[in-house]
Amino acid sequence: MLATSRISRPEPRIRAAAIVAALLLLLALGCTRGMPPDPARALLRREPFKLGRTVASSSGLVVCADAEAARIGARVLAEGGNAVDAAVAVAFALAVTHPQAGNLGGGGFMLVRRPDGSVDAVDYRETAPAAFHPEVYLGTDGEIDRTRYDNPYLQVGVPGTVAGLALAHRRHGRRPFHLLVEPAERLARAGFIVSPLLARDLRLHRAKLSRHPSTVRVFFHWDREPYQAGERLQQPELAGVLKSIATGGTDVFYRGWIGEAIAQKVRAGGGCLTAADFRRYEARLRDPIRTPLRGGELIGMPPPSSGGIAVAQVLAILDSPALHRADPVGPQLAHALAESLRRAFRDRALHLGDPDFTAVPVNQLLSAAHVKELRGGIDPRRATPSESLWPVPLPLPEAGGETTHFSVLDRDGMAVANTYTLEQTFGGGVVAADLGIFLNNELGDFNPKPGDTDRAGRIGTPPNLPAAGKRPLSSMSPAIYVRDGQVEIITGSPGGRTIISTVAGVLLKRLFLELDPEHAVWSPRLHHAWLPDRLELEEGLWPPQTLEVLRALGHTVKTASSQGAAHSIFRDGERGYVGVGDCRGDGWAAAPTWFDGDEER
Ligand code: GLY
Q1: What separation, in Å, do the N-terminal and C-terminal C-alpha atoms of the chain show?
Q2: Burial 52-88, CB ≥16 within 10 A → b, else e
Q3: Strand (E) positions, 367-447?
Q4: What is the largest CA-CA distance in the chain?
Q5: E-state strands within 114-219
Q6: How far is the centre of ligand 1, averaged over its atoms, from the C-alpha of 35 (Å)?
Q7: Annotation marks residue 291 as catalytic
């Protein structure tokens, strides 16, 4: 008989020790019901985030072009950082893991909406050097000189990213700046696993990249083969730069050794950037574009981005009851969207540029009367020839395309929409020697030849001609939509001029057609840029009948490869907030998680 199986009461001293131990354990695991989740304790249980193509969460979200960077952002949120802290950490991380567009050597735009409704529009676009002038890309014959225009060093503007991130952080950040740079530094030093997307892009752009020994040293093996998916890529020089920024802040970049080294490299290649240009650089706060839409407010970026005005114009033109139940892949919607884009891009060419150099009639372009006039000019039975919208006979280089967008929301409702870029994929392909930083080729976004606007899409209108200290016109369109005081959508995209079409399309599908978040992002896209006068539709995604009807309406239809990568966040009823990574751009969503007992929050 096991009479001893009866449990005897422990000694009072042992009992007290056991109770204390149990309480300590409960505290350590953070599982006291009803207490606010403590992320530090969640760390004891598991990684403090969940990750997927689509993630629902009411505890904050990060959606961006790379899983590692998304994890870093979610960890910042889990550790008590706000949306701006997470955005800063993601932006530095993407400079390591997504060198196609993530950057320290480029620039961009960030919208920050605080829970009290106030908005910061941070312009950290690159700026032309003091030696720039309207004829900078012309030869003695007055024609575009390809050796000048195609020289990547002559397209490098003063990078704005470090200043822009620091400005947003100074105004809103909660965590120390250096803690937000350090994860990127660690990734650069220890290395990260090359994704299939990065490996593909290194292969695709091999010719451009392999022209520059400083680039080859970082992204190619000794046998001049680019890094492959699954290999570990270390960037010790970039890690050194990140360490300097973490400890020295913006001064080491704009007044210290980093800026001086970049300027030297650019001048050695035939460009004209100087250390004085770096010293003059400032990230700027602009007045955001705020327009009423469908019972809420659309917030966009003002010039020198054309995105906020163009997207708002397109949606205002389309905001009629007829379209609200339209088939998302039918010809009626495609035609209406194409015609609206055509008109918005015409206005863009005529009126938009750096507001410090050109008077932009923002209110007039967004006025009800102007929108009504644009809408009235659309014939539902016929495509409008683009040339008929131009005051003089016409010639745009196709804006090359890479950029990256990410969206962040914290659990207090602070929202960040950030789009930044090197201009083309990997910029001009030049890594600054000993720094590991890709240089931008953003100044190629200026109109290259005064007066030269052609059918192929080259634009030569005055507002966006090159000038000293000027910022080139951008299409980047970070956007936040708010209704009833709550953020409903955070979106944006890469893709040169197609950015405007992509962002307008996502907003249109969610707000007008009421598609679910996944379909708003993943469904087929189209693009029209006024000139060239053609309608581009994503290949293989649109029904053939739609293409036939569009041709019959008079559109020159062209199929194009995938358009954009709109890594977005949506408010979606009972699901709370949903982060949707765009599969077109290897998008990932990540959210912090806390455990309350066994319950995930
Ligand atoms: N470089 C792309 C843009 O600014 O639109």
Answers
A1: 49
A2: ebbbbbebbbbbbbbbbbbbbbbbbbbbebbbbbbbb
A3: 404-410, 415-421, 431-432, 437-438
A4: 110
A5: 119-124, 192-193
A6: 46
A7: no
For ligand 1, whether the C-beta of 78 sits within 6 Å is no
- The alpha carbon of 474 and the centre of ligand 1 are apart by a number of angstroms equal to 4
Q: At what angle do helices 177-190 and 67-78 cross, to 10 degrees?
A: 150
Task: Please indicate whether residue 421, judged by its CB atom, sits closer than 6 Å to ligand 1.
Answer: yes
Report the alpha-carbon distance of residue 243 to residue 256 in Å, rounded: 14
pLDDT value at 38 more than 50: no
pTM of the model: 0.89
Name the residue with higher pLDDT: 281 or 9.
281
Give, for ligand 1, the residue of 476, 493, 501 to mutate: max count of ligand atoms closer than 8 Å to Cβ.
476
In angstroms, what is the span from residue 227 Cα to ligand 1's centroid? 27
> Which atom of ligand 1 lies nearest, measured to the CA of 306?
5
pLDDT in tens, 286-340: 999 999 999 999 999 999 999 999 999 999 999 988 887 789 999 999 999 999 9
Residue nearest to atom 3 of ligand 1 (CA): 474
Q: Rounded CA gap, 173 and 414, in Å?
A: 11
pLDDT digits (tens, 9 = 90+) for 564-599: 999 999 999 999 999 999 988 889 999 998 755 445
The strand pairing partners of 52, in sequence order, are 589
